[in-house]
Amino acid sequence: MIYLSKLLNQKVWDAFGHLVGRLDDILVSSTEKQMPPITALVLSHAPEGADIIDARNLSSLWPSITLKTDITKVLPYQEKGHELPLKQRVLDQQIVDLEGKRLVRVNDLQIARKGDAFYLTGVDASGNGLLRRLGLEVVGKSVAKALNKDNKTHVIPWEYVASIEHDDPLRLSVSQSKLVQMPPADIASILDDLDQHTSKALLQGFTNEELADTLEESSQEVQQAVLSHLHPERAADVLEEMDPDEAADLLADLDDQTSEQLLSLMEDDDEEEVRSLLAYPEDSSGGIMTTEFAHVPVEYNVEQALSFLRSDADALEDEFMYYIYLLDSQNKLHGAVSLRDLVTAPLDKPLTDWIDEDPAVVNPLTPQNEAAYLVAKYDLMAIPVVDPNTNVMLGIVTVDDALDTVLPTAWKKKLPRFSGK
Amino acid sequence: MSKTKLKFPLWLRKVGLIFTLLGPGLITASADNDAPGIATYSSSGSYYGYSFLWIIVMITIGEVVIQEMAARMGAVTGKGTGDLIRERFGVRTTTFAMLCLLLANLGTTVAQFAGVAAAGELFGISRYITVPLAGLLISLLILRGNYKSVEKALLFLCLSSLAYVLTVFIIKPDWGVILKDALTPTLKMDATYILAVLAVIGTTITPWGIFYLQASVADRGTEMSEYNNTRLDVMFGAGWGNIISAFIIITTAATLFTRGIRVEDAKTAAMALAPLAGEFSSVLFAIGLLGASLLAISVLPLATTYAMCEAFGFERGLNRPVREAPIFYGVFGIITALSILVVLIPGLPLFPIMILSQSLNAMLLPVLLVLVLILANDKGLMGKWKNKLTTNILAVGTTALILVVTLILFAGQIFRFG
Questions:
Q1: b/e for A46-66, b at 16 or more Cβ within 10 A?
Q2: How deeply is B279 buried, as exposed, middle or buried, from its count of CB atoms within 10 A (0-12, 13-18, 19+)?
Q3: Domain for residue B282, yes or no?
């Protein structure tokens, strides 16, 4: 195994044992590949014309860097502009580890030989990499031995890292396509650790929907930072894609002028939904409910209900559809049926069989804690929110939103700040 | 993600609003007047009178220039100082710089706990009660992430440093003499004096202040088009912090130095406020000292931990469970626990420890300043926002000044003059 840190500043010899220079950097190309090939070496203290030499000159890298030819016949390398200098642009920089789903710092880079050529194979982000850079590998080994622990260096394969430099559009777009395959919650936690310029650049390449999903999982700081960097038109589009309750939460934390502007840019029906949610206190059932839920007319039978659900706009917007709510023509709640029960029931069975005399419901002003308690007590995936006077159904509080305060996902980010909220 | 909003009375919310408007620069500068700061300024005023004022004038210029550099780097790169050092200088230099930062911050954290101990002892409460209690309380608040509400109350307590301004207007010192001394450089060649000079420098321009300011500016995501506001905030902040420092020196010089009283502990330091508060001066002093210490304790260990974890790429953040970020919580715990233990050493003199920790800060500062200067002059990093010539002259001058003073101190120890 060859590590970049062991090669840098090493002497480079020609085939006859003449000193050519010292290794200053290594260039790789085709960084989107699983193992990008090394294309050139950057030398210092080298004779003119040999500051950047073609990697095809290389005979070996380790234990000593030697060339195949005589110093006078060294092939120079002409830079094509897409090469990545490893020391300058990768070593010591931050990079996303797609396996571990976290942001890491590149402590070292691993290089391997295949046939006649050399390739970049992986990123060492481990403590061993740090110790190697300090020339203290022995310490790591003896500590591991003393603790009776396995001291294996964990190298992340190059195909499982995404670089996040915002000034390299080509590589950034490769990274974006890798990143969006991660769960939104993991993207959000990486964004939290990133500096603002980089996270802004990363998000630029996301679709509105990907952005909305990520924002729903992000902390308030990230949400606001991202939104404030988007063009208002686009910000409004992203808000439309978000769950109305999440969008309302986000807007509630913005200043009045900005949130008003964004609301007016949203589609009318989305705007109306979010506005109705904004009217309730943040920690009430109304404040955390979503208005997107599947419902069918109570007088239907199973067959009618299933075909209704396939075409009804509200049903299609319900992302989870744990339950189907049975409503009458005035939108009053009569009962709920789980999707499982509906699918497994005979087609001619009337829905009225599922009418519940005393269903667990909350009203919009029920505190969030109370809703969480009821959800937990009755083992529900969602609890309906109804108007206490008219019994008209307004929305549902899903289990994850209800438990949000009981199980805080993100307490406090970054440094303590005196300013701000 | 605060789901609940606390409702404060209107007047209190207005006070809160003022703090909200205060930028990171002003905050960092107010932190100059933390516990070791108050101790250092009081002591030097009582020992050397107005003759220390010219150092404040000099160091204000230095602080403005250096803090502005840090803020600009944060705004341009969006990254922390630790990040930039690591990315530009590699592992070895980073390790060295981080050891210096750790040592300086450990000393300063010890000094903050010493401030808690001194404040407690003014009320007649043993440090064996106050210090562990304060450490436990603040750590818990930080780890639970709900110290925001407490923070403003602490900032409010810190306003008691305004008492020095009021005192000066009561005692009506001779402004002519003050102005003359503030503009006439004087130097003495003895070790105690030079240590005091270093302490005043080290408590005004701090390594952690640079890291903290850059991180807050970076986190805010300042647009460069609005950078002038940030610059103003930083300059105004440094100026404000140092005006308070000057007033502490003027007060102690006028009330204590003239009567031959030297500040050795909190009790003598509190006497400086007697013209304003009479018999309540030690209560007033203790409140200010306590507020300042607790505020710094809530920031300093955490900021140090963040800087180190960022530079070395360890998992970090209070939103992570301990098993995911063992080093983060480990470093935080060690800094806090070690600082508490040091202060609990029986018979440890609190004021001298506070002051010496700041001298140490100053001696370690040039390491960081050199790195920051290289970074701020890097065209690839800073583009058109790289340092201008005047900034470089002033910043290099400040760095050189600190180095020279430190060298004089060590040379003095070797050749035994003074």
A1: beeebbbbbbebbeebeeebb
A2: exposed
A3: yes
What are the beta bridge partners of residue A338? Answer: A323
Quickly tell me which residue has 């095809």 as its tokens. A56
Please choose, from the candidates B215, B343, B249, the residue with its C-alpha nearest in 3D space to the C-alpha of residue B32: B249
CA angle, corner B320, sides to B315 and B323, nearest 5?
Answer: 75
d(CA A297, CA B26): 62
Degrees, nearest 5: CA angle A129-A131-A133: 70
DSSP-derived letter for residue A382 is E
Q: Distance (Å, rounded) from C-alpha B353 to C-alpha A153?
A: 43
**Going by C-beta distance under 8 Å and a sequence separation of 6 or more, which residues neighbour residue B148?**
A421
**pLDDT computed for residue A111 by the predictor:** 94
Determine the Cα–Cα distance for residues A405 and A409; give it in Å rounded to an integer: 8
Low-confidence ranges of chain A (pLDDT < 50): 408-421
Contact A12, A41 (CB under 8 A): yes
As a whole number of angstroms, the distance between CA A217 and CA A226 comes to: 13
Q: Do A193 and B5 touch (CB under 8 A)?
A: no
Question: In this structure, how many other beta carbons lie within 10 angstroms of the beta carbon of residue B18?
Answer: 9
B119: helix, strand or coil? helix
* pTM more than 0.90: no
Beta bridge partners of A28: A38, A84
Among A189, A368, A412, beta carbon nearest to B3? A368
Contact A201, A172 (CB under 8 A): yes
A169, B56, B76, B105, B373 from B391: Cα distances, Å? 34, 19, 17, 26, 10
pLDDT band at B339 (very low <50, low <70, confident <90, very high): very high
Interface of A with B in 188-207 (CB under 8 A): 189, 192-193, 195-198
Dist CA B118 CA B352 (whole Å): 12
The domain total for chain B is 1
Tell me if chain A has a CB within 8 Å of the CB of B321.
no
Give the model's confidence band at B19: pLDDT under 50 very low, under 70 low, under 90 confident, else very high: very low
For position B186, what pLDDT does the model report?
Answer: 86
The one-character DSSP state at A163 is: E
Contacts of A413 (CB under 8 A, 6+ apart): A192, A219, A221, A222, B317, B318, B319
Taken in order of first residue, the domains within chain A and their CATH numbers are 2-146 (2.30.30.240), 182-279 (1.25.60.10), 295-402 (3.10.580.10)
CA distances from A393 to A302, A316, B196 (A): 21, 18, 72
| Domain interval for residue B240 | 27-415
ipTM above 0.85, yes or no: no
Nearest CA in chain A to B214: A415
Q: Is residue B16 part of a domain?
A: no
| Mean pLDDT lowest among A417-421, B102-106, B288-292, B413-417 | A417-421
| pLDDT tens figures, A205-253 | 788 888 888 888 887 777 877 787 788 888 899 999 888 888 888 888 8
Residue B343's pLDDT is: 95
Looking up residue B340, the CATH number of its domain turns out to be: 1.20.1740.10
Closest-approach residue (CA) in chain A for B96: A134
pLDDT number for residue A224:
79
Give Cα separations from A1 to A12, A189, B301 (angstroms).
Answer: 19, 33, 39
DSSP annotation of A37 reads B
Three-state DSSP at A125 gives coil
Give the one of B1, B142, B221 whose C-beta lies nearest to A410's C-beta. B1
Helix (H, G, I), strand (E, B) or coil at B385: helix
- Burial group, residue A228, by CB count within 10 angstroms (0-12, 13-18, 19+): middle
What are the φ/ψ torsions at residue A293 (nearest 5 degrees)? -150, 155
Tell if the CB–CB gap between A105 and B1 is shorter than 8 Å.
Answer: no
Establish whether the linkage from the previous residue to A63 is cis, with ω within 30° of 0.
Answer: yes
